[in-house]
Design a protein that fits this description.
The complex is a heterodimer of chains A (542) and B (307).
Chain A lengths: L2 H24 L13 E7 L13 H10 L4 E3 L5 E3 L2 E6 L5 E6 L13 H12 L17 H5 L10 E5 L2 E5 L7 H4 L10 H7 L15 E7 L3 E6 L13 E6 L3 H9 L11 H10 L4 E14 L4 H4 L2 H9 L3 H8 L4 E2 L23 H14 L11 E5 L2 H18 L4 E5 L1 H10 L5 E7 L6 H4 L16 H12 L3 H18 L2 E12 L4 E2 L15 E2 L4
Parallel strand pairs in A: 1-10, 13-14, 13-15
Antiparallel strand pairs in A: 2-3, 4-5, 5-7, 6-7, 8-9, 9-10, 11-15, 11-16, 12-16, 17-18
Helix pairs in contact in A: 10-12, 16-17
Chain B lengths: L1 H28 L13 H10 L6 H13 L14 H36 L4 H15 L2 H15 L14 H30 L2 H8 L4 H29 L3 H7 L4 H10 L3 H29 L1 H5 L1
Chain lengths: 542, 307
């Protein structure tokens, strides 16, 4: 026997041992159970939500899970229309300031307790209580006294919400908010179960502790891996909940998520990676779902920098020089070119478009060049702004395209700077020698207000530093207006005003993209991209 | 030996303190805070959140608060995963990372050492060229290429193995992550072993043994293996710490909830306490493993033991 033979014998022996020990070690933990009888849905979620406390969570991922676990006074249908949820019906006073909700008599918590008006009072107060340190206090900022409570000036008990009877709730607003029923679909307005919050404190949102009022109850939560929920038999609409068990998997990497879908491990994905979009469209056209979204990709000017702030013609020229059709071709996933700030599909609203939106390209380019000269630039006076974007393939591709369009049309020599998102954001907020930056805005509710309010002078998310008294006063007039059609006119006028001032360059509107298994029924495309598990079912079960 | 170990452990304390202080300063001096998003918070809301996490205090105050917590084993709350403490997050992810890391290390050692030895004993033959060539590829091709490729081939096209951690049963879901984790280590260990073995086989005492008529097998088994393993041993300390704290790439590709992903997400999200907690943990682990390696050195090499 030669030495090498003996070695390979020993190696085989050890490898077998290793494999056996791997199996033994592997067998130590349970893994995801795929029971055959009940219907189980496997959904990709995106990032780890981090918190399932309705008052402490912030991410859209948490929202997806929370909308399965709980519900507010109102909710959405699968097509994105507002529907009654925990409330059965409601009345609104003529001045639009007082809402009286009557709760469903059969609304129940996952432990069988009835959902009462007091539960909502307790939860709303907890949301605005400064010691809760909630993120989404803006969902109730228009309720009477909310701002003063958040600022710590008066106690949470003074909030404009009151239980008139065990099933009757009155909410008083500071000023009319036409989209208030939409705000009440947000998870931060969901009730929390007082008994379990008081018993478990910070840990009340863990499996075993969490008592919620939605179609599903929390079963397991493996941080960074998955959240498992099962049907809540106490739910008032449990008879119409088809799917018994849902797994929300943490899938931060779209490519890895798509592979899991292709391997049959997921029924629904949260995203489609750009590099695979065309391939999916060709090979699985029936499974690719694309629909308009309430989100806009834009470049902002630093309006506090006189070079931009004092030169509207320069801003207009730079905006007009961008061929948006070409940009959406680069992104290539069904995005729509943006010639307005508010996206198409926004409820009760007609987006105001730039006057040159339908101009033929040659004419648009000539106009842009003319404005650029009038702005004081051109041959002999070059312009070298910096474009800042956060490190990401798509952002880089767009920045490169914009850079070359500006160079070609206007002779502008833009410099590209990429930074990590947190670094860029700090630079933008501090206005640290910023020229032009990339950003996006995603609507919180289906109303033009969620977009337009970001251009108000005192809005913290107004990143350009745009200040316009005219715009602000139009927004205030809209806020005071109770007649929806007149309010809409003010909002549309405000948008037109803001667009004329060119504080930013809307580039394209986002689309929602997902892979949905042909087995899944009940999927409705909607601008908010909300897909409640309770609305879904399997073809095989029908 | 005991006195040596005690001294080493005491000596590790200032090192650890220095690591904590530097890490603390670094995470706090990085631009942006844990709660910054494109949806900028209203000042009152931000103030409430900063107060809740003591971020409104001065840096020295925060540092002393952190150290005091650390003494009680409290690594603080996570800012991003608000329902959990950092200790809970690390504690939850660690068993999995250890299990995967241990298996990967075991596989790497067995495969790497065997391949390296065979190559050394068959120096300059086809086998040697093959081993060194494959090892070269193993070192140069990054995991973020190999791991997704493995998923595509074995999960998506062949459908033999699950594409993710949650997709398979307890046994088959370990296979690809362990191999992906082990591959670069196998390559590195094979090269290390080969070089060291060739070195030892050329040394005087081996030549003497040969002159006395001992067979190659006996020489390797009784004389050459121990000294040949010394360079490998010093590599093992940091390698084990690295493998145990998990590979971010492998964890992301296979959807494994290990320590590595928390580290990266924590850094990107400016989750100060989470990054600090994992850094402190990692530093402790490296110091501890290096200590063990040093003690083992004394055991394997009589020259060091004598000193």
């Amino acid at each position: 026997m030669t030495a090498s033979m003996r070695y390979s014998g020993a190696m085989k022996h050890t490898l077998v041992l290793l494999l056996v020990s791997m199996l033994a070690l592997g067998a130590c933990d349970g893994g995801v159970d795929r029971a055959a009888q009940e219907s189980v849905l496997h959904r990709g979620l995106g990032e780890e939500p981090g918190s399932l406390d309705v008052h402490k969570s912030r991410s859209s991922e948490a929202g997806h899970v929370l909308r399965d676990l709980g519900e507010g006074l109102t909710g959405y249908t699968r097509d994105g229309e507002i529907r009654a949820a925990a409330a059965d019906h409601w009345t609104v006073s003529d001045d639009g300031l007082e809402y009286v909700f009557v709760l469903r008599p059969d609304a129940r918590w996952t432990n069988g307790d009835p959902v009462t008006a007091d539960d909502f009072v307790y939860s709303f107060r907890r949301l605005v209580d400064p010691t809760t340190a909630a993120f989404y206090e803006n969902s109730v900022i228009d309720v009477a006294n909310a701002a003063e409570i958040i600022a710590g000036e008066i106690p949470p008990e003074s909030l404009g919400i009151e239980a008139m009877a065990i099933d009757q709730l009155k909410i008083t607003l500071r000023h009319p908010v036409p989209y208030f029923l939409g705000l009440l679909t947000h998870p931060s307005t969901f009730p929390v179960h007082r008994g379990s919050v008081e018993a478990h404190g910070e840990a009340h949102s863990r499996p075993g502790n969490l008592v919620s009022n939605g179609a599903y109850r929390l079963v397991a939560w493996e941080v960074g891996s998955y959240i498992e929920i099962e049907r809540n038999e106490y739910y008032w609409d449990a008879g119409n909940t088809a799917i018994d068990r849902v797994f929300h998997y943490v899938t931060p990497e779209p490519m890895a998520e798509l592979n899991r879908y292709r391997a049959g491990e997921l029924d629904i994905t949260r995203a489609i990676p750009p590099e695979s979009f065309k391939q999916m469209l060709e090979t699985r056209p029936d499974e690719v779902r694309v629909s308009p979204a309430l989100g806009v990709y834009y470049y902002g000017f630093n309006m506090t920098n006189p070079v931009f702030g004092d030169n509207p013609k320069l801003r207009e020229a730079l905006s007009m020089a961008i061929d948006r059709e070409q940009l959406v071709a680069i992104v290539g996933r069904g995005e729509a070119p943006a010639y307005s700030w508010v996206p198409d599909g926004t409820a009760n609203y007609e987006p105001q478009k730039y006057s040159w939106a339908d101009m033929p390209p040659e004419e648009r380019i000539t106009k842009a060049q003319q404005l650029f000269y009038e702005a004081g630039f051109g041959p002999g006076k070059s312009f070298r702004p910096e474009i800042r974007y956060n490190t990401h393939d798509t952002h880089r591709q767009i920045a490169v395209a914009v850079q070359s369009m500006w160079k070609e049309v206007l002779g502008v020599e833009a410099k590209l700077i990429n930074e990590e998102f947190q670094v860029m954001l700090e630079n933008i907020v501090q206005k640290n020698s910023i020229d032009i930056f990339r950003m996006n805005w995603n609507g919180d509710y289906n109303d033009a207000h969620t977009f337009l309010s970001t251009a108000e002078s005192d809005n913290p998310s107004n990143l350009t530093g745009y200040q316009s008294a005219d715009f602000d006063s139009l927004m205030q007039r809209a806020a005071r207006q109770t007649d929806p059609s007149r309010r809409r006119l003010y909002l549309e006028e405000a948008e037109a005003r803001m667009l004329r001032d060119y504080p930013l360059i809307p580039m394209y509107f986002f689309v929602n993209k997902a892979m949905v298994s042909p087995q899944v029924r009940g999927w409705g495309d909607n601008v908010l991209n909300y897909h409640y598990s309770q609305h879904l079912s399997f073809a095989a079960d029908e | 030996m005991l006195r040596y170990a005690t001294l080493r452990i005491l000596g590790a304390i200032p090192t650890l303190l220095l690591v904590i202080a530097i890490a603390f300063l670094m995470v706090h001096s990085a631009p942006g805070g844990p709660f910054d998003r494109e949806r900028v918070l209203a000042p009152e809301v931000e103030r409430n959140i900063e107060r809740a996490y003591h971020l409104d205090e001065s840096l020295p105050e925060q540092f002393s608060r952190y150290l005091q917590g650390l003494l009680h084993g409290d690594l603080g709350p996570s800012y991003r995963y608000r329902d959990y403490t950092v200790a809970e997050l690390i504690g939850g992810a660690l068993p999995l990372s250890i299990r995967l890391g241990a298996l990967a290390m075991a596989l790497a050692l067995v495969a790497g050492v065997s391949a390296g030895m065979v190559a050394a004993l068959r120096k300059n033959t086809i086998i040697d060229r093959l081993v060194t060539g494959i090892a070269m590829i193993g070192i140069s091709v990054p995991v973020f290429v190999i791991a997704p490729l493995m998923v595509l081939v074995f999960a998506v096209f062949l459908n033999w193995l699950p594409a993710s951690w949650t997709g398979g049963n307890a046994a088959n879901r370990m296979l690809m992550p362990v191999i992906a984790l082990a591959l670069p280590q196998i390559a590195y260990i094979a090269r290390l072993t080969r070089a060291s073995m060739i070195n030892v086989m050329n040394s005087d005492f081996v030549r003497t043994a040969r002159a006395q008529g001992l067979s190659t097998i006996s020489i390797v088994r009784y004389h050459a293996i121990k000294p040949a393993m010394l360079p490998l041993l010093s590599y093992m300390g940091p390698a084990i710490a690295g493998v145990l704290t998990g590979s971010v790439v492998v964890e992301e590709v296979f959807g494994i909830p290990g320590v590595g992903q928390f580290f990266i997400r924590g850094a990107l999200n400016r989750d100060y306490t989470l990054v600090l907690g994992i850094t402190v943990f990692y530093a402790t682990l490296v110091i501890f493993l290096n200590l063990i390696v040093d003690l083992l050195y004394g055991f394997l090499d009589p020259r060091i033991r004598g000193r």
